[in-house]
Amino acid sequence: xxxxxxxxxxxxxxxxxxxxxxxxxxxxxxxxxxxxxxxxxxxxxxxxxxxxxxxxxxxxxxxxxxxxxxxxxxxxxxxxxxxxxxxxxxxxxxxxxxxxxxxxxxxxxxxxxxxxxxxxxxxxxxxxxxxxxxxxxxxxxxxxxxxxxxxxxxxxxxxxxxxxxxxxxxxxxxxxxxxxxxxxxxxxxxxxxxxxxxxxxxxxxxxxxxxxxxxxxxxxxxxxxxxxxxxxxxxxxxxxxxxxxxxxxxxxxxxxxxxxxxxxxxxxxx
Length: 270
Prior knowledge:
44% of the residues lie in helices and 26% in strands. The protein is built from 7 helices and 10 strands. The strands form 3 sheets. A 4-stranded mixed β-sheet has the order 4-3-6-5. Strands 7-8-10-9 form a 4-stranded mixed β-sheet, covered by helices on one side.
């Protein structure tokens, strides 16, 4: 009888412990993911002879860390290709303010900047976010419009300056004199526009030889000696072809050319 009572008590104790463990882990698992501050984890690595080895590792990411990363990201407003008002949303507490006349008002609290903006009925434009503190300027609608036009003109001029087109002309050694003059005039127009011009000359007859092909390149260059030069000197290619590329002289090259011409005339006069 005593033995039976002991068995019942032990069974009850085991069931109570199991119930407690189940409730505990169920509660822990039911917690939202963002409230768990799990920054480190123990990983067990199995070894062949020494059993298990516990290694301390760092988890991939937590909810709190993800939020901190999002807060740390800055919006680079100064990288915009356009100029516009930021409205009343100023992310910086202290800003460096410049008024509509270009006068430096120095560091100022954003609330005071908004007060001045409302009082003068102006708009606030971000000029340089990377400065400390960031630089803002008060501008009227007309001023913003004018700055946008200036910026577009500058971008358009920059894109045109950076794009160099390459034109191409091909003719044979049997080309007529009139046709050659027309092609040289076309090359001159392209050079005036600062384009690169590739010229390919083909042999009409095998007896012409490479010398006759290369003569055409000299004639083209002599038509504009004060503006045109070689980007790639003429050379003979395979299958009876020759090629050369022309370009416009730089300001430095043009100055050097004029100096040499002047020295040549002086030496001839002596």
